[in-house]
Design brief:
Blueprint lengths: L2 E5 L2 E4 L4 E8 L7 E7 L6 E6 L6 E3 L7 E6 L4 E6 L8 E8 L16 E6 L1
């Protein structure tokens, strides 16, 4: 069974940091690009960051560029998102998913994880 389990969210003040983790199982993690997505209250889910299979390439939505860092540990089947200089605009539920290609950021796995809540207070 393919499973994605996000963790690491919480409540932080503006300017704070969090490190999110995504534990993947049920598929060959090291064969796929991976992305972090987020869904702010009242808005649709959006792509935040994407990382290539080997982790050598990464891209980010403009609003998080320079503040967030996506990484992966293929030996542990785990995806990470280091979030620094957090702003209330980053408040959202964060999800991870796989991509068939680095430049195609559509989610590949039909069943989303529960996500992890990130709340940034002002």
């Amino acid at each position: 069974q393919v499973q994605l389990v996000e963790s690491g969210g919480g409540l932080v003040q503006t300017g704070g940091s969090l490190r999110l983790s995504c534990a993947a199982s049920g598929f060959i993690f090291a064969s796929f690009a991976m992305s972090w997505y987020r869904q702010p209250p009242g808005k649709e889910r959006e792509v935040v960051a994407t990382i290539s299979i080997g982790g050598s390439q990464a891209k980010y939505v403009d609003s998080v560029q320079g503040r967030f860092t996506i990484s992966r540990d293929n030996a542990k089947n785990t995806l990470y998102l280091q979030m620094d200089s957090l702003s209330p605009e980053d408040t959202a539920v964060y999800y991870c998913n796989a991509n068939q290609y680095y430049h195609d950021r559509r989610p590949l796995i039909r069943s989303w994880g529960q996500g992890t809540q990130v709340t940034v207070s002002s």
